[in-house]
Specification:
mainly alpha; 2 domains
Amino acid sequence: MMHKRRLELFDGNSTETEIATDLLQGLRQHLLHSYKTPSRAWIKLAGGADRSISVHSFLDKVGKSLNHNALDNLRARAVIETVLEEPDADMDYPAFLRVLRFAVPVATIPDLAKRLTQWYMSIEAGLQIWGFESQNSSIGLDVGQLERPLLAAGIIGQDVRSLFQAIDAVQPGGPREVVDGNALRHALHHADALGVLETLRADRTRDVVATLLASSDTDEPMSDPTQ
């Protein structure tokens, strides 16, 4: 199971796992920035759409452009192998896409719902594996305690804090600075609606900023009025 394999990385050292996950997220961002699409990146790295490449060779090629050292590559390889169905086999294009999919940062509740479905097959299965069975739904966790289960699903750093704040803000009864299984279920089961609200909020913010900038440009004198 990916969850268990991820938590057991580096003898259970969460700091090392977070570093490795961050390296993988950076690698994905670099590939998409450099090659624009996964298929172009794969053809360049593997030599053809139907070719395979070892994880070691893959990281050696990508790592050079990112100035990764041997330790960086070992960390990235460890976390990549947790999402591969055959960790010891060469990586083909479908496996490469799988690696990229689980390297996507997760910073919103809709993203979290999607990751749980991808990682654990369903939201409820994920919550139960995280320890939020129905009988434990009222056990609250602060942001620090929520880091470990989220880390197992490839969620790190500021994204953990952003998710915690979003879930806490929408839980029934208002923010409590702890979240429990009930709060998680409430947020995740309303993920689509919350995503729409977040989009509307972002659009409104952009409109306000655009209006302010336009107003600023209009009021700006064309020349120094003292001249």
